[in-house]
Design brief:
Elements: H1 3-6, H2 16-23, H3 27-34, H4 43-56, H5 64-68, E1 74-80, H6 90-105, E2 109-115, H7 125-128, E3 133-137, H8 142-153, E4 159-162, E5 173-178, H9 180-192, E6 198-204, H10 209-225, E7 230-236, H11 241-254, E8 260-263, H12 266-278, E9 288-290, E10 307-309, H13 312-329, E11 336-339, E12 342-344
Parallel strand pairs: 1-2, 1-3, 3-4, 4-5, 5-11, 6-7, 6-8, 8-9
Antiparallel strand pairs: 10-12
Domain HTH lacI-type: 14-69
InterPro entries: HTH_LacI (IPR000843), LacI/GalR-like_sensor (IPR046335), Lambda_DNA-bd_dom_sf (IPR010982), Peripla_BP_I (IPR028082)
Keywords: DNA-binding, Transcription, Transcription regulation
């Protein structure tokens, strides 16, 4: 039954004045917080205003023209990423490229923003986005991602989650991901056929659900193969090359040499291989190396790393396509879209 028929008035839109009253400040102070003019606001006041903005689910009211049109023809792309150089990551860059190319062909713009997980709920950036919908790559443990997802759902906008394995009950949410667990199983099958007994897996300390899925798939694959393979996992402090080298170096200094090293991505695999070659350890005769993603950087290292080819660019394309369908038809064509990955043998196994 509609509000008109039931006699209930439609919900009133929260205004700056409502936020100001709740925070016991002036509307100008709220405006300063929203527009990032923090030099005019004390830290205590800023936090109080941001708390009320989140509690009241306030969103910026844009110009009268923007309010009159049904669509802004713009999408927000958000990476919940602790790394300042998040766009230098090859996976992220491919996703953005695929998304932008699909949306630009349909005369839509894309606004890209990186936000640290621990700053997400305090950030006013998301509430200020003048967009028709969001594409989001989440990081963190499941509970942390769930809390961020709740905040995104409260924005009442169409939402595409990229690389998120946990389904959302919200009907305005669509998941677009690749089958990372299957990729892990492919690597396990390949290494099990080469009779490895011990494997070192190198991953970033930041929790990425896709990396977790790769490691889980690797374990499942070895278990299915019936072998008793010891799997050790080490975390690199950051996602850069030197950090991965440091993590592998520390492990090798205190543990026996593994039969294989699996990088959570190709960068980590190449970093591990560089340590082995520096120490005169032959690859693949003594230690086998595999990576994940298969981006351009893999071609610059020799021997060529065995890897799993990601669908990162296609993930961006599919995310753009399902959003465009949602804008046109009022609903997503599917609640979840899973793209395949492909094994590609190199010279390191």
């Amino acid at each position: 039954m509609s509000d008109a028929n039931s006699g209930r008035a439609p919900p009133k839109r929260v205004t700056i004045k409502d936020v100001a009253k709740a925070a016991d400040v002036s509307p100008m102070t709220v405006s300063n917080v929203i527009n990032g003019k923090h030099q005019f606001v004390s830290e205590r006041t800023r936090k109080a205003v941001e708390r009320e903005i989140a509690r009241l689910n306030y969103r910026v009211q844009h110009s009268a023209r923007s309010l009159r049109v049904a669509r802004r023809r713009s999408v927000g792309m958000i990476f919940v990423d602790d790394a300042p150089s998040f766009l230098a990551d090859h996976f992220n860059a491919h996703v953005v490229a695929g998304l932008c190319n699909v949306l630009s062909a349909a005369d839509h713009t894309v606004t890209v923003q990186g936000i640290r997980a621990d700053h997400f709920n305090q950030s006013s950036i998301i509430r200020n986005f003048a967009v028709d919908g969001f594409c989001v790559v989440l990081s963190g443990l499941p509970d942390e991602r769930s809390a961020i997802l709740d905040s995104l759902i409260n924005l009442d906008q169409p939402l595409v989650l990229i690389q998120e394995p946990i389904a959302s009950p919200n009907e305005e949410t669509c998941i677009v991901r690749q089958d990372d667990a299957a990729g892990g199983r492919l690597l396990a099958d390949h290494l099990a056929a080469r009779r490895v007994d011990s494997v070192l897996v190198v991953v970033p300390s930041q929790n990425w659900p896709a990396i977790d899925q790769r490691v889980a798939g690797l374990r499942e694959g070895f278990q299915a193969a019936g072998g008793n393979v010891r799997i050790d996992v080490v975390q690199a402090k950051t996602e850069d090359f030197d950090s991965a080298r440091a993590a592998v170096t520390t492990y090798l200094d205190h543990h026996p040499l593994p039969d294989a090293i699996v990088g959570g991505n190709d960068r980590f695999a190449i970093a591990a291989m560089s340590i082995l070659l520096d120490r005169g350890i032959p690859v693949p005769d003594r230690v086998k190396i595999t990576g994940f993603n298969g981006f351009e950087q893999r071609r610059y290292a020799r021997p060529l790393v065995t890897t799993v080819i990601s669908s990162a660019y296609e993930l961006g394309e599919r995310a753009g396509e399902v959003l465009l369908t949602r804008f046109e038809k009022g609903r997503f064509p599917t609640r979840e879209l899973v793209l395949p990955v492909y094994f590609e043998s190199g010279e390191t196994t």
